[in-house]
Amino acid sequence: MDVTAMTKKELMELIELNRDEPSSELLNEAASVRDKVYGRHIFVRGLIEFTNHCKNNCLYCGIRSANTKVHRYRLTKDEIMSCVKEGTSLGFSTFVLQGGEDLYYSDDVLADIIYSIKEYAPGCAVTLSVGERSYESYKRLKSAGADRYLLRHETASEDHYNMLHPSSMSFRNRIKCLYDLKNLGYQVGAGFMVGSPYQTSANLADDLLFLKELEPHMVGIGPFISQADTPFRGEPDGTLESTLTMLALVRLMLPRTLLPATTALGTIDSHGREKGFDAGANVVMPNLSPSDRRKDYALYDNKLCTGAESAEKINDLKTIIENAGYIMDMGRGDSLVNSEQ
Ligand code: SAH
Q: Are 155 and 164 in contact (CB under 8 A)?
């Protein structure tokens, strides 16, 4: 099936047909497209959740500013460097610095951290995921050595965006940030939650069409999982099946993109990651944060942070990947979007 040529209406039909049970035809086609571009390699990134302070108040997110139950923490530069050192000794060559929108990490502070990581591990890739900043800020962080940036668009429909975010946040600014990042030469990751409150199949079709236009190097997709201290407590979680369907459709829409089997997918199903690989995913991001902080980065309830989800258990992850018929790849794993290889 040629998903890239489909109209919004056709995409909606395909989404609805597969939402409760992705067809094996869809999954197999997505996996074989991935195999053709990237082979059976699963790329591993070390995730460092370095701050859970956040000025934003996204309705779905457990570390939203209005949640007074969160035990807030920030890692110092030395603590971040310890994570990087541990990761390097475990064989990681990509580090993802993710956090809330925390003004403490000014451009100067972040640039210094990025620079030090690059000095310590020169060949590694540094990925940032710290939300919306100005063009100038992104530019500064790029010149400090950042290679990649993850900023999920969350939903490509402005009206849906406004149902998930407070009025102080702007859909248009988020989209502008993604284009700014691309123009500055970052490898960019967009993405969205599957099954977020009020989401329709029209919204999901718009997500696919938006991704086709943006052509990001990475697409992070995971199920929405409700968090007890947010306004969306008690809302139904996104399902494994609908998430696999959307992973497969994104793979078909963007054959050369990198597609993580996310922690959220591993959280809703004990074999979620492997099922994600079989739907076309090819990245995992185990946690390198200090283990005593992990429970505080609770974006949603029951978030996995131990076992194969934790970097120190890299051998368990390797076993899972190999048993599923794939090859664990600890290299930089650069995106092949916009490459002729
Ligand atoms: N502050 C950064 C990082 C956000 S956390 C930024 O703005 O990009 C990373 C991602 O976790 C978010 O983009 C969101 O899609 C996801 N997330 C947050 N709350 C979630 C929930 N309740 N269920 C599933 N995913 C969630």
A: yes
- Interval between CA 340 and ligand 1 midpoint (Å): 32
CA of 331 relative to ligand 1 center, distance in Å? 25
Residues with CB under 6 Å of ligand 1 are 60-61, 98, 100-101, 129-131, 151-152, 154, 193, 222, 224-225, 227, 264, 299-300
For the entire predicted model, the pTM comes to: 0.97
Burial of 69-94, coded b for 16+ CB within 10 Å and e otherwise, reads ebeebbbeeeebeebbeebbebebbb
Q: What is the pLDDT of residues 8-21, one digit of tens each?
A: 999 999 999 999 99
Answer yes or no: are the C-beta atoms of 238 and 276 closer than 8 Å. Answer: no
CB 6 within 8 A of CB 14: yes
Distance 243 CA to ligand 1 centre (A): 15
